[in-house]
Design a protein that fits this description.
This protein is mainly α. The chain has 13 helices and no strands. The longest helix has 14 residues. The protein is globular and about 60 Å long. The termini are far apart.
Length: 253
């Protein structure tokens, strides 16, 4: 990757097509190889041809810059403007990747579609509308978790979306990773979206698997189950027990 970055710096990216730009950014972000000059060049070139990017290319480019923590507000705004009217062409994975990227720290405050002082990125309005239109039946566990996390991260009120994510998640929690369970609980608690059945189901699924959770995931799950949005839930089953059963398991772990 050092040699690749040097070669791209030597020749530039003027001859790169959209997929080549997206793939290169994705690759460097995937291996966490710091190459700020390369990302600057990819950003500048991508801005000239975003209308030719596929949905996957738009999502992966946003993911790459967010994952790399490379500031590119103009690029994120342009991606949002290009993606918003085309969201019906995005697969569930691409929607969730785009949402995650626009909510991640590396992209915070961007993805507005245009420079704006609006408190909520415009893209999330379009994402919520598209998910409402098609539903979340085709979303896999990671896509459900990432979407919930993204909307909670940017504090975008979308009660119908959260209801849909809750209902779908309840059908597949056994396929959620520890990170997915923790992030889903965090998202609903942070959004203040009441979902007692979901929290109880997350607790029941997580409790026997806590040995698989990383310390951060344990603490996130504990916080979410104690937060106002989840108060009284996370019992593992409907119960009048004064202490949520999950906390017994957490203390034992």
């Amino acid at each position: 990757f050092d040699a690749l970055a040097a070669e791209v710096a030597r020749r530039g990216v003027g001859g790169f097509k959209p997929q080549e730009l997206a793939n290169t950014a994705w690759a460097f972000a995937k291996v966490a190889h710091a190459a700020p000059a390369l990302f600057d060049a990819l950003s500048g070139r991508s801005l000239l041809s975003l209308d030719a990017f596929s949905p996957q290319g738009l999502a992966n480019t946003a993911w790459a810059f967010a994952s790399a923590g490379h500031a590119a507000p103009e690029l994120f705004d342009a991606i949002a403007a290009e993606a918003a009217p085309r969201l019906s062409q995005f697969k569930p994975q691409e929607l969730s990747i785009l949402a995650w990227a626009c909510a991640a720290d590396g992209a915070a405050g961007n993805c507005r579609g245009k420079p704006s002082a609006a408190p909520v990125p415009l893209l999330f309005d379009a994402l919520a509308a598209e998910v409402a239109r098609r539903g979340v039946g085709g979303f896999k566990p990671q896509e459900l978790a990432n979407t919930a996390w993204a909307f909670a991260k940017v504090a975008h009120a979308a009660p119908a979306l959260f209801d849909a994510l809750s209902g779908r998640s309840l059908l597949s929690l056994d396929a959620f990773s520890p990170q997915g369970l923790a992030n889903t609980a965090w998202a609903f608690a942070s959004a203040g979206h009441a979902a007692p059945e979901l929290f109880d189901a997350i607790a029941a699924e997580a409790a026997p698997r806590l040995s698989q959770f990383k310390p951060q995931e344990l603490s996130i799950l504990a916080w979410a189950c104690a937060a106002d949005g989840a108060a009284g839930n996370c019992r593992g089953k409907p119960s009048a027990a004064p202490v949520p059963l999950l906390f017994d398991a957490l203390a034992a772990e």
